[in-house]
Amino acid sequence: MKVKNCYIYILRLLFFSFLMFFLVNDALPKKLSAFLTYATFNSPGQGPYIETYLSVNGKTIQYVKNESGKYQGTVQVILLFKNGEDIVNYDKYEVKSPELADTLDLNFNFLDQQRYSLPNGNYDFEIQIWDLNSENKPFINLQPLVMNYPDDEVIISGIQLIDSYQTAKEHGKITKSGYDLIPMVSYYFPESVNKIIFYSEVYNTKKVLGENEKYLISCYLQTLEKDKPLGNYIIYKKQSASDVNVIFSEFDITNLQSGNYYLVVEARDKQNQLLHQNKLFIQRSNPRIQLKLEDIAAVSIDNTFAGKITDRDTMIDYIRCLEPISTEMEKGFALVHLQSSDVPTLQKYFYNFWHERNPADPEKAWQTYLSEVNKVNLAYSTQIQKGFDTDRGRIYLKYGPPNAISESYNEPATYPYEIWHYYELTNGQRNKRFIFYTKDIVTNDFMLLHSDVTGELSNYRWQYALYQRVDPGFDIDQGPLPDSWGGNSKKYFDLPR
After folding, report:
1. pLDDT for 33-64, tens place per residue?
2. Is residue 95 located within the same domain as residue 141?
3. pTM of the entire structure?
4. 417-424 and 404-408 strand pairing
5. Do 116 and 125 touch, CB atoms closer than 8 A?
6. Is the dihedral of CA 467, 471, 477, 482 positive or negative?
7. Does residue 454 form part of some domain?
8. Of 1, 58, 101, 461, which shows the fewest CB atoms inside 10 Å?
């Protein structure tokens, strides 16, 4: 057993991290709340590696007195990198909290960073973490990991989010390019955080383009719903080809509205040909920036298709069906104003929505979408929901029809389920899947159980939830998958038919 003393920084809680291993319930015994992210890099001559960044909420662990009479907590971590049945790399270690004179003020996070060499390949990355001073069981999380760093292509590393940085006095594990980089162990940016600071690297430009050849780096934000850069959030940097080029930059997001975004880093040659691109999903909460009634008051609907829709209930229904393709700000506006606004206001909002997406022919854009809404209403409506309100309807409208659907309604060991497979999404993600299931097929209401699409519900223990049909008391967070499965879910997930 190793105790990691590489570095542990205390971060005062500036914001609530929405992605956690456990949600804290104050009415129950303490449950560990932690968040782990990672980024992959390549070291010329040494090969690819992964950096892991772990943040533990100091309020959610048990503290005991150590030999020096101070209070201290200890978290046990196991990391496994598996290629098929082979364990390629492995670590088991302890992370200790700072020593405390008392436990009255636990308003801090403590961090740990590790680095592991991994050859190119596809891996299952398993994380096990638990509080050594608590009787609570370990939490286990499994997620896929791809290492792809060929030496004959221009490749951009993972994108590391930075909480803060300072000039390095000596080289250490957190040092890159002469700076000590304190990781931001979250993809969530609340209103109190006004900067996105990020670090990335570009490899092999000298080999591919030629030594000192010029090329262009673009860094920008784009919404999850619209596949184009946001005009106020673009950075261009000219680079000279080298073995490794460093990207270390930041955006001021004081006025960035709430929503789901990609932070994009891309490299282009002098002919503007894309050499490589990498994306990182982030979320922003900024309630101060809202779409207000006065923002659409000046919109003219004279002689437009929206002006002809005069029935209020019809207009409300049409706006409600836009939710799957709406930005977070648009969703917020509809939530607040949909039931209280008059018909002209709803007409203006509706027309402005489609004009922003297709200024040349907003009516055609709406009619095309309405055709898809009619399809999902016919296929997925339930006794209490229209099709566009269901999980399957939302996914269909947001991403389009899947390329393949594997349906299994009668397997003896699982709830009825469907696996949807997309070859490529409009935002560039490839080979992605959604798993829906129902505990009562009579209602036709299939809930989303898991997806490997960025920004969607992720539950890599989804098979355990399906298995609860034959063992309702089975703990889906603990224990191995039962030997007697009796189903095809894994096969259909790996090889959709």
Report:
1. 899 999 999 998 899 999 999 999 999 999 99
2. yes
3. 0.77
4. antiparallel
5. no
6. negative
7. yes
8. 1
